[in-house]
Design brief:
alpha+beta
Amino acid sequence: MTEEAKKKTKKKRPAERTLEWVRRHGALAEKVERWNPYAGAIINGKPVGKRQDMFGFVDVEAVWETRTDYLQACGTDLKTHVDKIRESLDLRGRIKRLLANHPARRLFIIAWRPLKPRGAKIARWHNRIIEVMPGIEMREIDEEEFLTGSFHP
């Protein structure tokens, strides 16, 4: 397989897919997770590295004209991310601190999955968007609500 063919078949990570998606819709956005080569498990006396999110839960920060969105991107493992937020007191505390008294800040979990429409030959990537509110309540919103910000108070 040629180098070019390998690049074409390379699967995008959910954070990369999310970053491209919000940029395509007009946000000024950056990936804020980073690779830490000194974290993670120790194998043969050396750390193997670990991906670390900003504040422990943010992969992408998207700045719009009137708001800033903090996005946790994932694949089909949405339930794992929802449970992590619900069960971790430390994480919930950081989320409340980030969102409290800042109505222009929002946190979302964006899950990506390939869906193949009936009769189609190729699956397309679709997202599922969960808004995480300051009290750690969560609700699913559609793409239009997310993009227009119509869910804001």
